[in-house]
Structures are given as structure tokens and as C-alpha cells.
Amino acid sequence: MTLLHPAAASAAAEDDAAIPLLSVDRLKAYYRLKLFGIDREVRAVDDVTFAIGRNEIYGLAGESSSGKSTLIKTIAGAIRPPLAVETGSVCFNFSDGTRDIYRLTPRELGEIRWKRLSYIMQGSMSVLNPVRRIRHSFTDFALPHVPEKGAAFAERIGRHLERLHLERSVLDAYPHELSGGMRQRVAIALATVCGPEFIIADEPTTALDVIVQKGVLAMLRGIQRELGSSVLFVTHDMAVHANLTDRLGIMYAGRLVEEGRTRDLFRQPLHPYTRHLISSLPQIGDDTPKKGLEGSPPNLAAPLSGCRFHPRCPLAIDICRREAPPMVAVAPGRRVACHVVTASPDAVAPAMEEVRP
Amino acid sequence: MKPNLLDVDNVSKTFAGRGLFSRRMKRAVRNVSFSLDADRPEVFTIIGESGSGKSTLASMILNTARPTGGSIRFEGRDLAHIRSRRDRVAFMSRVQAIFQNPFDAFNPLKPVDRYLYTAAEVFSGCRTKEARETRVDDALHKVGLSLAEVSGRFPHEMSGGQLQRIAIARALVSSPSLIVADEPVSMIDASLRMTVINLFRMLRDDLGVSIIYITHDLATAYYISDRLIIMQTGEVVEAGDARQVLAAPRHPYSIRLREAVLSVDGAWRGTGLDAEAIQPSLR
Amino acid sequence: MNTLKVLRDLFYYNKEFATGLLLVLIVVAVAASSFFSPYPPLDVYVVPPDLPPSWQHPFGTTSRGQDVFWQLTFAIRNTLLFGIVVAVISRVISLCVGLVSGYRGGWVDRVLMSLNDTFVVIPLFPILVLFYFIMRDQMTWGLLALIVALLGWAYDARLIRSIAMSLRTREFTRQAVFSGMGTGRIVWQEHLPFVLPIVFSTTLNNINWSIGIEVTLSVLGFTDINTPTIGGMIYWANQHTALVSGIWWWVAFPIALVVLLFIGLFLLAISMNEYIDPRSRLSRLGGQA
């Protein structure tokens, strides 16, 4: 397997795992708008710290205005005004050295893109040029980053497609000739052909039909396991997270509110918001009444004092209105930002039971 | 004998294929039939993926598109006979619609309440401002809002959940007996989604409104439907009691659809993504 | 967000807008000063003829014994007014046709658009000259404005129609239909606000275009030469072979002023275009950031 990244093989065995592949440290990214009578500051990412290890799928869950899209834009180093990083750092520990995304020159950033860091987006049409055959998209993106040229390059792409159970004939198709699911598979093939160490997947299956979605997710997981890459997978769909991700971070109003192994998080959610997300998820065969969350979603342009969830929180106490809860490790690999939970984790479950109908 | 609330009788819709040389016809809906009982309000769900014809069927029921075959009767009256503006207004006051994207369903440059006032004026004949306000306030109270909260507000000041509740209130102003909701929660955040879904249940139980709920999401369909049909490329492949069909689908397509639903419980049982070999077909 | 604030920010942040506004204001000031003119516009030989620019007559005097500056104030006022009248009339037509055609679609659209296309392909200039020869002395300033307006709406009606067509597919239009609104209400209350910024920018361009037409026709003498306009001034200057006899100021100042107006309106139009686009992006951002 020539395509297998050298880092993947070594990562499991060596102590590389101690240093996470991605470390995001106290990151703040704000939109500042001052134009045509609009004057506002939107705190889309507000003090987020987390890390992603090698060979894992890290899920990021959040609703609209949770800041998750801004967070991944910032991690990818793809920000443009009015969005700007206020403080904090985004560090990748690639196999050939550590890099701080915001200390790189545009050229250095261009070198790691696609080769070490690649993306899969919701609309694959933004990567696939609509007027050129798929083959050209591969040439444009991958050719500068792999040692093979000419026939060897074509062979590498062909073998990569086969590995993903795609026929080589897709190379001669135009994007519009393919179905939505097929385009998304091609986008995944394109993102993984250079064997990147880190893949950012931004709602790649949200626009797809259910039957197609499952296949695309399985394919993504398959290639991730094979390459040993890390994936940051963003979606609002909790059922997808449950089935795909290894670890999960929940965002609310620009902040990370809970993080842990996906299974643990679903089995025993700690943060009241996470609890609600999971308990209100309708499922076939589940006849318990579900309730929506009271109150309105957060307004990032006018952030509240204290915990940003407090107006909608059934557990809110006095301190929640005054002080923002810090992210605290309550168990190994488990962090939560909630005053009530960190004070007495045991008291939470019964209190939530009362709230649930 | 009292006529059914709605009879969809062998309805088809064919679009002429676009293009200079191709005369291919696209059959979006083929021979669909079902009826809703006037005395037994229910949530009737149409399940289908993109291209299944479910939205075309919805617009035919809403009389914004004409069937090319078969007929649709509302309270015994064929929709094809609705021609004048007066007939259309009378029809719309009995059959209302709720749309998919609440952020697009209100003019961003206008306050949201104007739709409610217009509906009160046109459908309920409220001549005075007071009469309209009372009518609108009543409708908003049914969805857990009040005129004071909504008055003069613009769409961007509200959440998707709130907007969709206002849209439901707007549909309720004329006291309809049937509401067609096309993917009403697919654009709404998960934490607010169930509030809207529960409202449909309330409409059925407390107000006696029948609902045609169009969705691709089997989980919410299971949660609120009484009966459902599953559509594939314009045809109904399976129909029946919602719980029975979803618990044990029979048609191969329904089975595939049912199996593709990712569930949280399924994830732990290992019936999730690793279970199958994935062979995509080039479409 | 109010209009004044928008204009203020445009003025501060957009150089084209500031320059354009300044130029247009200069021209408007010149036009406004016609109300203080010491000489009636149609009187001739009120000052000594053929004087070059001086302190007493800043723009000089004409061979007909008129002060060029004060003559120019009347001329630019009439020309500007002509442009505005044409723009307003043709905007009303293009709005009606474009919005209704785009919203209703079907046979209404086909009828209105075939009418529209007819006006697009009509050769403008021969028609105007033809009208002049038919009407002769009845060819007043107002009638010419009406004719030019009738010939100048078609392109923009198509533009407005294309916007209306995309608005028709938006969900809020369906919401309006199911709220019981008729075509009139949907078109004028729901859709009109969306096309107004573009109408505004096309208005500026249309003023430019119609002034160009008017000047061209006047220079050739195909208009009512007794109403002082920029074209009319150049016409009279040509009649007196001003350039040959070295009376350059009779031609240069009217041309300079109308060029200022052209550039000013053009800059305003492009800065408006720039504003129309990012504003929608920004307000969308503010809606669900």
C-alpha cells in the first residue's frame, strides 16, 4: 500500500499519540462588521480549546449560530474579513513538524493544503469545476502534492478510486452528470488521494438522501481507517455522530460546552444542553413524548453574561447568570462547562428527570 | 353521506421534457390515490426522497399545480372547478400550506405580522383593525405566542422555530380543516424541532385539523403520523398504518429506506456503518 | 438601518460615491442658480456679443449677445429635468411590465415580453427623427420626453423581470399567496422593495442615456430649439460657426458641464451597484450569523 501514510503506521505504535495532531488553544474568532450603517461584533468562536489525536474521528455538533462553521473555517486557516482571529492558536503536529496555522506564509499554507490537510464540503460543486471533467479536478488539486507524474499519477488515482469502490470511468464524467451522492463520493476521493493526515468534513452528507447518506458515511469511515487520518466531522445530526464519530464535542453559542467519547456522551450526557439534544431525538420505535427546548437560540452579536445557556437551562442557578463556567475535566477524556454539573455530577440526573415530561 | 375531506383519486402529473429535440415526458407522480376522512382528523404522512414526487403531489393538493390525470376532490368538490379568485380564496381558507424554510418564508424586508393581518382580512372578512388583531392574537395563542411578541418584528429577529410557529398561526387564521406541510422541520434546529412537531399533534387533537405531513425523515414521521404512504419515483410503494409500516416495512424500497435510517441505539448494536459492504452505483 | 446612515457610510467609505455626489451637486447648484439669473433665457443681445471669459462674464458671452454662464444655468436645468422626467416615466413602465411579467409568467409574460422585445429592437434614432418631421412645430420638450421614455424602458424591464422571476420561486411569495394576497399586493408590496435599489441605479444610467439622446437631437436641430438646453446651446453655437470664429467658450463650457454630469451620474450608479450587492450579503449575515 503505497498510499498509506507513513504517519498512520507509526502513530499507533509510537508515542506520537501523546502529542495530539491538532491543538486548538483558547481560540477566539470574531466577525467585525462596520459598514453601511451596520456596526456589530459577532463572537462566533469564543474561547474554544480542544485537541484531536491521530487516527480518530472527532465530531463537532451544534445548531445554527453555535459557531461550528466559523470554528472549522478558522482551523482550516480559511478566514477572510470581516472574520478575524482575536487570540489563541491553531497548531497542527504533522509528521514532518509542527505548524501554527496563523504563523504560516500563504505559500507554506498552500503546501500543506490537500497534502496534509484537506476538506470535504457540503456542496461538492465548490471543489469540482462544473465545466471540466472530474479528471481535471484531480490533476488540479493532487498533482502538485504527489511524487508521481504522468502515467504513474493516473495509475495512483485509478487505484485510489478502486479502493473507494468507484469506477475509473467517473474520471471522464462532468460533475453535473453524477448524482449528488456520487459527487460527494468523488469529493471524498479527491480529499483523500494525497493521503492527508487531517480531513475537515463540513456537513458532507446533509444535502443527501438517507439511503445515499449511509453509503457515503461508510465510505468516509472506511478510507479514514485505512489511511489512519484524523477527521473533524461537523454536523448538526446527532444520529450521524452516534454512528460515525469516536469523540464528540458539543458547541453552543460559540463555546464548547461538553466533550467526551461519543458513546459516553450518549450514554450519560452531563451538560443540560447535551441532555436535551439527546433526549429530544425522535427514533423509530420510541414512543416517549419529546419536547422542544424553550426560549430562543443564542444571539452571538449580543452575548449574555455568565453561561450562555442559562436562559434556557432548567438547572440554572444564581452563579450561572454571573459567571461563565470553565471547561472542566470531570473524568478522563471528559470535559464539561457547567457550574451545576461540576459542583455535583450526581445531582444532575434526577433533576433532569423531573424536567422531562 | 358526508363527503370525504380529501380524495386523491388516481392522480398523475407529467411534465414535458425540457430541451429542443427531446420530447421525453417526465412522470413526476403516477396514479396516486388516498382519502382523508372528514370526521377523523389525522396526521397523514407522505414519505419520499428527492425526486419521489412528494412535493409535486403536495402542490397539486394545494391547487397550485393541476394534475394531468385523475382528480383531487376537497369536501366532494373537484379542484379543477376552482377558477375564479373568489373560489380560490374560499379554497385557501379551508386548505392551508406550511413551507420548508422558515427563514425564506417571510419577506425579509417586511414585518412578519402583515401576513397574519392579510389572512384575517381576506379569509375571515375582518374589516376593522380590532377584529383583525383579535383574530390574529387568537391564532398566535394556539401556537404558544402572542401578538405582543410578534407585532412589528422582522424575520431576522426570530429563530427558525418561532418563525415556523408564526407560519402555523398564519395558516390557522382562517380556521382551515386541512394543512399541507412540506418538510416543515427540516430547516429547524434540533432543539426547537420537537416544539413544532408537537404543535401538529395539538392541531389534530385539539382543533380537529387534518395534516398532510411531507417529509424524508422517518423518525419524526413515526413520532406523529397516523397513516403514511411511501413514494418512490412518483409511485406509492407502500401505504398503511404508520407504526406498522415503519416497524415492519414490506416493499424492498421501504425496507432499504428503513434500514438506512441511522439511529442512536443502532449505533451501539453495531448495525450502523460497518455492517454492509458499500457498492455505489453510478447514476 | 436608515437611509441617511447608509448614505453617510457610502460617502465615507466609497470614493466613487463621494466624487459622484460632489459632481452632481455642482451641476445641480449651477442649475439652481438659474432662478437668480439677471437675464431672461430667451432674450438676445442683452450683453455685448463675443466677449471672452472675464470677471464680469465668467464664461464669456455668445454671438447672440447672451451671457454663457447664465444661459448655461437654464440649459442645464432643462436638460437635467428632461433626463429626470424621461427616467421617471420609463421606470414606471419598466417596473409595471417587469414585475407583472416576472410574477405572473405564462401567457402574460409571453405577451409583455414580445412587446418588450419589439421596443428593444426598434431603431431609436430614426424613429425620433421621424417623429420630429411629423410633429415639426408641435414637437415640444414634454412630448419629446414622453417619446424617449416610451423607447427607453425595455432593457430594464427585462432586468426587473429576471429578478421578479427569482422572487416568484421564493417561499415568502407562496406564503403571501396563501395569506390571500392578490397579484397587485404581491407585486407592489412584496417584490417592489427588492428591485428598488436596482431601479435606482438604472435610473441614474437612464438619465445619462436620455440626456445623451437629447443633446444629440438638439445639436442636429431636431428638437424645439426655443427651449434652452445644452444641446440647444451647441446648436446655436454651430449656427454661428463659433469654433471657426474662435468663440470656443460658447461650446466648451456646455460640453464641460454635461461631461461633469455624465461622470457624476455614472460614478453614483456604479457605487450604488457595489452597495446593492454587499448589503444583501451583510444583512443575511446579520440575520443568522
* Sheet with most strands of chain B: 6 strands, mixed
Number of helical stretches of at least 4 residues of chain C = 11
Q: Give the CATH class of chain C.
A: Mainly Alpha
Q: Report the CATH architecture of chain C.
A: Orthogonal Bundle
User: What is the ordering of alpha helices and beta strands of chain B?
Assistant: EEEHEEHEHHHHEHEHEEHHH
- Helix percent band of chain C: over 70%
The radius of gyration of chain C is 22 Å
Across the major sheet of chain B, the strand order is: 6-7-8-3-9-10
What key attributes describe this structure?
heterotrimer; B: 283 residues; alpha/beta; Rossmann fold; 6-stranded mixed sheet; 4-stranded antiparallel sheet; 11 helices; 23% strand; disordered C terminus; C: 289 residues; mainly alpha; MetI-like fold; globular; Peptide ABC transporter (chain C); transmembrane (chain C); transmembrane helix (chain C); MetI-like (chain C); transport (chain C)
Summarize this, please?
The complex is a heterotrimer of chains A (357), B (283) and C (289). With 357 residues, chain A is α/β, with parallel strands linked by helices. Chain A is built from 13 helices and 12 strands.
What does this protein look like?
The complex is a heterotrimer of chains A (357), B (283) and C (289). With 357 residues, chain A is α/β, with parallel strands linked by helices. Chain A folds into 2 domains: 6-245, Rossmann fold; 271-281 and 292-355, no CATH class. Chain A contains 13 helices and 12 strands. Chain A has helices spanning 6-13, 68-75, 106-112, 134-142, 150-163, 180-192, 210-227, 238-244, 262-267, 272-279, 318-322, 339-343, 345-355, and strands spanning 22-35, 38-52, 57-61, 83-94, 97-100, 117-120, 198-202, 230-234, 247-252, 255-261, 328-331, 334-336. Chain A is globular, with a radius of gyration of 21 Å. Mean pLDDT of chain A is 83; it is low at 1-16 and 350-357. Helices cover 38% and strands 23% of the residues of chain B. By secondary structure, chain B is α/β, with parallel strands linked by helices. Chain B has 11 helices and 10 strands. Chain B has a domain at 6-107 and 175-261: Rossmann fold (3-Layer(aba) Sandwich), CATH 3.40.50. Chain B has helices at residues 54-61, 85-94, 113-124, 129-142, 147-150, 160-172, 190-207, 218-224, 242-247, 252-260, 264-269; strands at residues 6-16, 25-36, 43-48, 69-74, 77-78, 95-98, 178-182, 210-215, 227-232, 235-241. Chain B has a 6-stranded mixed beta sheet, sandwiched between helices. Chain C has 11 helices and no strands. Residues 278-289 of chain C have low confidence and may be disordered. The A-C interface holds A 31, 33, 35-38, 40, 42, 44, 64-65, 300-301 and C 1-2, 5-6, 8-10, 13, 275, 278-279, 282-283, 285-286, 288-289. Chain B: Residues 6-258 form the ABC transporter domain. Chain B: It holds the Pfam family ABC_tran. Chain B: InterPro entries: AAA+_ATPase, ABC_transporter-like_ATP-bd, ABC_transporter-like_CS, P-loop_NTPase.
